[in-house]
Amino acid sequence: MGGRxxxxxxxxxxxxxxxxxxxxSPNPSRQAGGEHESRIExxxxxxxxxxxxxxxxxVLAVMSFxxxxxxxxxxxxxxxxxxxxxxxxxxxxxxxxxxxxxLDRPVWERYLAWAGQALGxxxxxxxxxxxxxxxxxxxxxxxxxxxxxxxxxxxxxxxxPAGIFAAxxxxxxxxxxxxxxxxxxxxxxxxWLAIMAMLxxxxxxxxxxxxxxxxxxxxxxxxxxRHLVLPVAVLGLLSAGGITRYVRASMREALRxxxxxxxxxxxxxxxxxxxxxxLRNAMIPVVTILALDMGALFSGALITEIMFGYPGMxxxxxxxxxxxxxxxxxxxxxxxxxxxxxxxxxxxxxxxALDPRIAFRAGA
Amino acid sequence: MSPAALAWLRFRRHKAGLAGAxxxxxxAAAAWSAPLIEAAFGVDAESVDxxxxxxxxSAAHPLGADDLGRDLLARLLRGGQVSLSVGLAAAFIAALxxxxxxxxxxxxxxxxDTALMRLTDGVIALPLLPLLxxxxxxxxxxxxxxxxxxxxxxxxxAIVALVGWTTVARLxxxxxxxxxxxxxVRAARALGAGSGRIALRHILPNVASPLLVATTLSxxxxxxxxxxxxxxxxxxxxxxxxxxNMLAHAQETIWQAPYLAVWPGLLIFATVIAFNFLxxxxxxALDPRS
Lengths: 364, 290
Fold this sequence. Notes:
By secondary structure, chain A is mainly α.
């Protein structure tokens, strides 16, 4: 959880090892026996991606069914709400209403009906906002994209120099200090950091607004940026911890390689070796980890949006779940899943594109 | 020197890990002696006293009192019991599920293996927090489950374990796959050992160290998840205390009593970082190659 809230457990998982263990491996020949690994040259790329896309579509379909089923299990359904609103409803009325809404049919039948409409682009109406759920989501999307984009940029801007620095000073005081800060970032509850940031910068110092975000047209960019400072700082700082650890581990791995010693031996300067040989190779796993961490970043954004009253998708999903707004919660969750899956495929694609040694498993 | 003595030597060199272990032991001791401490100060975690709302620290309330006049120290200790129990129990269950499925997939291979790996791919790709929120919002009554007193505790443990087993499953599966081709496994099979015996006696011991490290590291994460869910009102339900739900009103009371927001969060932070350091130290101690 965490990286911050690396859900995916960003808690101090060891870089690259656990998560990537079985993904297209940079060195398949080392993988244990029994698996048919085969090297496919560049024509394999499209096949590989097609396979991943198919798999993602499958995950999305399964996910939509699970979430559909789960949401039906939340307390209260539309009929309950009507009963609560109108005490005069008789039990015959409820039965009729249930039939009208299709709630008397088994869950898979209702799911298929919903999925059919969804494939046609109709995700139903939001119960609390009385508007098409998809429109609501589309309105919130730019806000979340802005928050996540800025936080991501901040965390990379911190993590790259910090991770490289720590790797170069391995086992010295600076390395330990960076490592300690990384652990702190991974271990801080995001909602608590948000409260502490508000306590310091809004309550005590009064420098920045604690919550809210000006509606479009209400305020110019300077005001909006003032509202963005705390959410972006909280999300970005907490994400930086996990990423720094990846960068450091990847750099140390690259520094150990024989070609680095060779490059030094043939007389290249330290800076040139670092730039041309170490950094280039160290960044390959980092790029993919960044893409893989999208799910964690989204989880962090959700909490940040709730804490700071920021009108993003995460807060919308949370409110929809809490208010039993089935259609809205469903489309929000599916969109979040879709985005993370897309980022995952991008990660695999980047891995293949950046590392010419990559071979992929046939038909994977 | 025996391998265990060597591991202990390496563990002791990791000062932060050692400090984490000591902190966690002290915390657990304090949390489970909460009844004694409550008796000593004449307070308890759930009795409401409207005359001491937001009371500052005093002899009667060593850390002050919350918005309902409940003693903060007592609630922090009770909350510690909850956080530690949830973390340990969910991590244990997740490790159990992950080990079972990982062994089966790695040793048996075939269609089951493929399906399991695709499933873990899918789960790892999910944005976990929104999914946990939906899971936590499920009404147990609609599943025909009893809504007992500790229901919220068991529910949090169950849902976190449900999504937390994939890391362990991958780890164990990879190790089982590697071990399967080793000579000692073939020798065991030649001697007539069955699959179950091979998996438990010959493969599992080889997975033990990474398993222990991964599980320790996951405890910190689980405690973070629990605190977030409880904070959002979906985890541990009041009046029972948990560090997360103690922060639920912190945003509103931040003006009157900022320390109410400081203590629970500080304890979550310290506990999670202690588990992470401990896991890091275990990794250094048990897996010197890394």
